[in-house]
Amino acid sequence: MAYQKLETQINQAINTGKSFAYETNFNSDPLHWPLIFKAAGYEINMIYFCLNSVEEAQKRVAIRVENGGHFVPDSEIIARFKAGYTNLNEFFGFFDTLHLFNSSTYGKAPDYCLTFQKGELVKKADLPFFLEDLTSTLYSQAKS
Question: Cα(8)–Cα(11) distance, rounded to whole angstroms?
Fold first, then answer.
């Protein structure tokens, strides 16, 4: 149901030339929708909010559940966390613009990390240590 609604909204946006944004863990088939938008002539931009650990992701899900949101099993949280960073590391150059923010501290505004445009680093701040292990290709390009 949710997928069909998203698909309908995407098709409406493309048919009318409207901008469109959606939230994703970037974990499964990460370029499915971006490729469709790119083929329709859209500029593809990503804002990626980083977490420093699976444990922090689990805490965020618990907070969401306490506030009436849906539950996600730990095994799925772990899989999504790993896949999201794997895909970010592999596909960061696909996006016209990619901004990374560190949102690891709950209740605090995310810290700006970096910006890539078409795979080229254009701006960076202090990079959090955990990105080196989770996104080695992106991290090494950002450090050079």
Answer: 5
